[in-house]
């Protein structure tokens, strides 16, 4: 069955969801308030770097299944299934999530509805938000127009957004048990192709669905901080955290994924999500349950400080030193620099008196916009020219394939700190480099 779908928000989540829903054969309209983003998307250009998304976008625009608009009226007239995919950033100076954008969509859309509608929330929100938005939507919708809010959290990873949307590990749907409607039926129609593939489909209440998302991200953050805590102990004991991770990862109950120690997690999701989760638990009187997330956050931030320390040790003093930073994105295959450990470390080192040269294969423009005072180079070799120390802070494939001899010819000192433990220490040491990893002897 073909559905008429509107997707509100055309960031990582919304743009990917809109394009992928069209790929499933639905008719989709993407809605945003940002005219420059819309203009790019309309011309088939993805406003951020996401492998494979451009092809899906262009194919579906060409097929006439996908278009974009800034008009809520147009979206309300066209669609009866709406997806809400706007951002929920951290509030300035607080842990809590800023729900302004989520609320704004409901406030603008609900009064314009002309026919029965299901609004599926995809944004990551504090538990209780969906029920609140549902009441608001019912209150604002014109008399006689049925509107239902359900929650369908998104688990996509940047860099794998298309794959994760079209072939997710699971689909989760939270429905309003107090106001039963047709949300489940609508979700089954939208995701029919995925359900036919046997992808697990968990239908639950609104609160559980919201918590599934926040707890999944909290678990992932905890796993990363666990291994980074082990890295601290390994550093103190002269042990190797990468071998430790491989060894404990063989236990299926533990698993090797997300056990890569390094400069820690960043991005637009994990850091702000664990903080919003703590804030919400506090409001609910359950703050004790999540005090450990404070520690998870602290361990993570300590990794950045540790990296700065190691750079200082390598240079003797950061004053007047030249530091090459390879990687600025918060992870490879992304141009996203939101709360990126790499850029954060680069910034701290510069503030302490070093000249920092950054190179990233995709995140240069975003980095320059966020940190205009850092030095930027056009290649890894260029960034390393005359460097006293080279820091690898994002594990791009390009960096894993660097030739230690080529790099050795341009640096002032053959000193390398592998902030992602992604290089082979032996190869670098054999080429005359001083190699340091995080949590490795
Ligand atoms: C994360 C979740 O993985 C997604 O499931 C979720 O949908 C998304 O947040 C979201 O809430 O929107 P993402 O932010 O794209 O996805 O990135 P991850 O792949 O989770 O990586 C997060 C950070 O952890 C990166 O900075 C990465 O370098 C770091 N990381 C990851 C480690 O330091 N070690 C690891 O072993 C794995």
From TrEMBL:
<feature type="binding site">
    <location>
        <position position="158"/>
    </location>
    <ligand>
        <name>NAD(+)</name>
    </ligand>
</feature>
<feature type="binding site">
    <location>
        <begin position="258"/>
        <end position="262"/>
    </location>
    <ligand>
        <name>substrate</name>
    </ligand>
</feature>
<feature type="active site" description="Nucleophile">
    <location>
        <position position="269"/>
    </location>
</feature>
<dbReference type="InterPro" id="IPR014026">
    <property type="entry name" value="UDP-Glc/GDP-Man_DH_dimer"/>
</dbReference>
<dbReference type="GO" id="GO:0003979">
    <property type="term" value="F:UDP-glucose 6-dehydrogenase activity"/>
</dbReference>
<feature type="binding site">
    <location>
        <begin position="155"/>
        <end position="158"/>
    </location>
    <ligand>
        <name>substrate</name>
    </ligand>
</feature>
<dbReference type="InterPro" id="IPR001732">
    <property type="entry name" value="UDP-Glc/GDP-Man_DH_N"/>
</dbReference>
<feature type="binding site">
    <location>
        <position position="266"/>
    </location>
    <ligand>
        <name>substrate</name>
    </ligand>
</feature>
<dbReference type="InterPro" id="IPR017476">
    <property type="entry name" value="UDP-Glc/GDP-Man"/>
</dbReference>
<dbReference type="InterPro" id="IPR008927">
    <property type="entry name" value="6-PGluconate_DH-like_C_sf"/>
</dbReference>
<feature type="binding site">
    <location>
        <position position="32"/>
    </location>
    <ligand>
        <name>NAD(+)</name>
    </ligand>
</feature>
<dbReference type="InterPro" id="IPR028357">
    <property type="entry name" value="UDPglc_DH_bac"/>
</dbReference>
<dbReference type="Pfam" id="PF03720">
    <property type="entry name" value="UDPG_MGDP_dh_C"/>
</dbReference>
<feature type="binding site">
    <location>
        <position position="37"/>
    </location>
    <ligand>
        <name>NAD(+)</name>
    </ligand>
</feature>
<dbReference type="InterPro" id="IPR036220">
    <property type="entry name" value="UDP-Glc/GDP-Man_DH_C_sf"/>
</dbReference>
<feature type="domain" description="UDP-glucose/GDP-mannose dehydrogenase C-terminal">
    <location>
        <begin position="324"/>
        <end position="425"/>
    </location>
</feature>
<dbReference type="InterPro" id="IPR036291">
    <property type="entry name" value="NAD(P)-bd_dom_sf"/>
</dbReference>
<dbReference type="InterPro" id="IPR014027">
    <property type="entry name" value="UDP-Glc/GDP-Man_DH_C"/>
</dbReference>
<feature type="binding site">
    <location>
        <position position="272"/>
    </location>
    <ligand>
        <name>NAD(+)</name>
    </ligand>
</feature>
<feature type="binding site">
    <location>
        <position position="331"/>
    </location>
    <ligand>
        <name>substrate</name>
    </ligand>
</feature>
<protein>
    <recommendedName>
        <fullName>UDP-glucose 6-dehydrogenase</fullName>
        <ecNumber>1.1.1.22</ecNumber>
    </recommendedName>
</protein>
<comment type="similarity">
    <text>Belongs to the UDP-glucose/GDP-mannose dehydrogenase family.</text>
</comment>
<dbReference type="GO" id="GO:0051287">
    <property type="term" value="F:NAD binding"/>
</dbReference>
<feature type="binding site">
    <location>
        <position position="213"/>
    </location>
    <ligand>
        <name>substrate</name>
    </ligand>
</feature>
<keyword id="KW-0520">NAD</keyword>
<feature type="binding site">
    <location>
        <position position="338"/>
    </location>
    <ligand>
        <name>NAD(+)</name>
    </ligand>
</feature>
<keyword id="KW-0560">Oxidoreductase</keyword>
<comment type="pathway">
    <text>Nucleotide-sugar biosynthesis; UDP-alpha-D-glucuronate biosynthesis; UDP-alpha-D-glucuronate from UDP-alpha-D-glucose: step 1/1.</text>
</comment>
<dbReference type="GO" id="GO:0006065">
    <property type="term" value="P:UDP-glucuronate biosynthetic process"/>
</dbReference>
<dbReference type="Pfam" id="PF00984">
    <property type="entry name" value="UDPG_MGDP_dh"/>
</dbReference>
<feature type="binding site">
    <location>
        <position position="88"/>
    </location>
    <ligand>
        <name>NAD(+)</name>
    </ligand>
</feature>
<dbReference type="GO" id="GO:0000271">
    <property type="term" value="P:polysaccharide biosynthetic process"/>
</dbReference>
<dbReference type="Pfam" id="PF03721">
    <property type="entry name" value="UDPG_MGDP_dh_N"/>
</dbReference>
<feature type="binding site">
    <location>
        <position position="124"/>
    </location>
    <ligand>
        <name>NAD(+)</name>
    </ligand>
</feature>
């Amino acid at each position: 069955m073909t559905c008429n779908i509107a997707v509100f928000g055309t960031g990582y989540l919304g743009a990917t969801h809109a394009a992928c829903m069209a790929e499933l054969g639905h008719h989709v309209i993407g809605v945003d308030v940002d005219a420059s983003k819309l203009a790019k998307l309309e011309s088939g250009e993805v406003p951020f770097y996401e492998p494979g998304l451009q092809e899906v976008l262009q194919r579906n625009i060409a097929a006439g299944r996908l278009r974009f608009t800034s008009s809520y009226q147009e979206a309300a007239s066209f669609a009866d299934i709406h997806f809400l995919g706007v951002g929920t950033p951290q509030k300035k100076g607080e842990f809590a999530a800023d729900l302004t954008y989520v609320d704004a969509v409901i406030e603008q859309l609900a009064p314009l509805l002309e026919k029965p509608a299901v609004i599926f929330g995809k944004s990551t929100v504090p538990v209780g938000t969906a029920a609140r938005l549902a009441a608001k939507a019912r209150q604002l919708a014109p008399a006689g127009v049925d509107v239902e809010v359900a929650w369908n959290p998104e688990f996509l990873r940047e860099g794998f957004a298309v794959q994760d949307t079209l072939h997710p590990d699971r689909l989760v749907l939270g429905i309003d048990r107090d106001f039963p409607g047709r949300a489940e039926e609508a979700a089954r129609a939208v995701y029919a192709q995925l359900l036919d593939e046997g992808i697990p489909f968990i239908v639950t209440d609104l609160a559980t669905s919201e918590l599934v998302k926040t707890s999944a991200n909290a678990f992932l953050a905890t796993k990363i901080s666990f291994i980074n805590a082990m890295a601290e102990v390994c550093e103190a004991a002269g042990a190797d955290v990468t071998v430790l991770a491989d060894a404990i990862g063989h236990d299926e109950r533990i698993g090797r994924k997300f056990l890569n120690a390094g400069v820690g997690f960043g991005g637009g999701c994990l850091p702000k999500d664990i903080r919003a989760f703590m804030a919400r638990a506090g409001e609910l009187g359950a703050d004790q349950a999540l005090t450990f997330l404070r520690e998870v956050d602290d361990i993570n931030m300590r990794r950045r400080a540790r990296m700065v320390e190691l750079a200082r040790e390598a240079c003797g003093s950061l004053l007047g030193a030249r530091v090459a930073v390879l990687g600025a994105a918060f992870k490879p295959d992304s141009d996203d620099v939101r709360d990126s450990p790499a850029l954060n470390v680069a910034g701290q080192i510069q503030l302490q008196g070093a000249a920092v040269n950054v190179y990233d294969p995709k995140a240069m423009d975003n980095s320059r916009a966020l940190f205009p005072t850092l030095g930027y180079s056009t290649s890894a070799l260029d960034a390393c020219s005359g460097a006293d120390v080279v820091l690898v802070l994002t594990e791009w494939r390009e960096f894993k394939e660097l030739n230690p001899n080529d790099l050795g010819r341009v640096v002032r000192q053959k000193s390398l700190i592998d902030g992602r433990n992604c290089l082979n220490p032996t190869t670098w040491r054999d080429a005359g480099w001083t190699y340091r990893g995080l949590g490795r002897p």
